[in-house]
Amino acid sequence: MRIALLSRNPDLYSTRRLKEAALERGHEVRIIDVLRCYMDINIQNPSIHVKGVELPPFDVVIPRIGASVTTYGTAVLRQFEMMGVYPLNESVAITRSRDKLRSLQLLSRKGIGLPVTGYANKPSDIPDLIDMVGGPPLVVKLLEGTQGIGVVLAETRKAAESVIEAFMGLKADIMVQEYIGESGGADIRCFVIGDKVVAAMQRQAAPGEFRSNLHRGGTASLVRLSPAERATALRAAKTMGLNVAGVDILRSNHGPLVMEVNSSPGLEGIEAATGKDVAGAIIGFMEKNARQSRTQTRGRG
After folding, report:
1. Which of 126, 164, 112, 109 minimizes the C-alpha distance to 142?
2. Residue 171 and residue 257 in one domain
């Protein structure tokens, strides 16, 4: 296969591993900076150019699109789809998963377990918003935050009111969620490929920290999933329409709760914690499923 790997940094671990895994299986790989792409949008021959040269035909495209370039990155991916190139994850699915509020609403509609979540626009709604999620302690999250940035634990009602008022005063979009204390500062990252959870790790927050992100000093270890956790991860990925996803789950007293569904999950932590060749599994999935113009959302916008 001729593979286009959309990544802004060829030296990132995930990018390198995907390229290595593809080359080991005899495929051609070209790493393309999505922000260097520009598009010729027309009826007869849509194309993508980089540095004045039209890109050659590709069989598949693997999007590794950062959150900060979602809008432009998914536009480029959509152009690949228009050209009949098979995407690992489709543009519509990535856009859906990157909208935190929309993704939670979709998961809720499918009956998938979530932390109780509140969303409001006016400071006058803050008291009821706090009560809605069960009162303090509670978690305040920026809708645009990533890797634990913009996530605050408010342990008292006064602290919650102050934090929410401050964010609203800055015109920032936030949501408020119940705090799952029984999780003990740990969550589970389930790595989904197709209809299987191929790997899972538990991430434990550093002492004095409630965010378990590895970028924030959290540690990762191998974990055994319950059947309910495995089923929840698969349903969450399917609801988003993602072939490959990192589904983050909290263990609560009332079952597994989905925190987030990540459309570009990193490979370094999960491969190190589990010892599994996740990159190779991704390439294997594409070998089995890639077909020209086989894009479910093609033509739907």
Report:
1. 164
2. no
Own/partner pairs for 169-173, CB < 8 Å, 24+ apart? 172/142, 172/144, 173/101, 173/142, 173/143, 173/144
* Same-domain check for residues 173 and 186: no
Residues of the domain holding 67: 2-87
Q: Cα(251)–Cα(169) distance, rounded to whole angstroms? A: 33
Q: Are 222 and 274 in contact (CB under 8 A)?
A: yes
Whether 1 has a pLDDT exceeding 80, the answer reads yes
CATH (domain of 138): 3.30.1490.20
What is the phi/psi pair of residue 19, to 5°?
-65, -45
| 86, 292 Cβ separation under 8 angstroms | yes
Residue 194 sits in a domain of what CATH number? 3.30.470.20
Give residue 300's pLDDT.
40
Provide the token pair at 190.
């389930």
- H or E element in which residue 5 lies: strand 2-6
Percent of the chain with pLDDT over 70: 91
Q: Summarize the confidence of residues 232-253 as an average pLDDT.
A: 96
Q: Could you write out the DSSP letters of every residue in 184-238?
A: TTEEEEEEEETTEEEEEEEEEPPTT-----GGGT-EEEE-PPPHHHHHHHHHHHH
Based on the fold, state whether residues 235 and 196 are members of the same structural domain. yes
- Cα distance from N-terminal residue to C-terminal residue, the chain: 27
pLDDT top residue among 42 and 220: 42
E strand or H helix at 16: helix 13-24
Amino acid at 48: I
Indicate the residue type of 173: D
Question: From CA 164, how far away is CA 152, in angstroms rounded?
Answer: 10
User: Could you tell me if residue 229 is left (phi over 0), alpha (psi between -120 and 50 degrees) or otherwise beta?
Assistant: alpha
For 32-48, what is each residue's pLDDT tens digit? 999 999 999 988 899 99
